[in-house]
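Help wanted!
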Amino acid sequence: QKEVEQDPGPLSVPEGAIVSLNCTYSNSAFQYFMWYRQYSRKGPELLMYTYSSGNKEDGRFTAQVDKSSKYISLFIRDSQPSDSATYLCAMSADKKAAGNKLTFGGGTRVLVKP
Amino acid sequence: KAGVTQTPRYLIKTRGQQVTLSCSPISGHRSVSWYQQTPGQGLQFLFEYFSETQRNKGNFPGRFSGRQFSNSRSEMNVSTLELGDSALYLCASSPVLWTGQGSYGYTFGSGTRLTVV
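Answered by r_m:
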């Protein structure tokens, strides 16, 4: 079983709907949580970064972390066709070992239909 | 401001050959990390370099190696290529080696698509 699980989708929603994405994880040491968006033939682009539990909002994006349930979510409000992409969650454990060693979920493909 | 530049964008190699991929970080960035992305395994961490020193290494065989030059540009090398090495290889750069303090500053490039036949 993978450390980070993510439904591969595809998740198809009409334009203007709320997109709800989530990841579950098994490693209780994870404390840093990210959400990335990846368009076809492009590298991942950081959307949200959260430390520990709680909510964080940035424009149309809201990230939630529930460490007690080992569950993180990303919500996209007022979705647009340009939001059609693969969304990846990523996590990092205690930063005793500095650096960019992230554990990624497999990604969820999202399609926003006009 | 130029982003992270990876060359070449596409590459086709034969089993048993070796390959070198290049990553030029954003100007002023000193940390470069490398990831492999495949449909089956997703994104997996390979290694990270900061100030010409390897700081972290993932669980990949010794056929995968890298280095960083004094201008922060980085290369990764894969020797004795196998079919399973076919993947998108991504590098990400950051001004500093992330310690969890402050913002997370890594930016990914668009990757090099390696096909092994």
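OP: Thanks! One thing I noticed: Chain A touches chain B at residues 31-32, 34, 41-46, 49, 51, 88, 90, 92, 94-95, 97-107 (CB under 8 Å).
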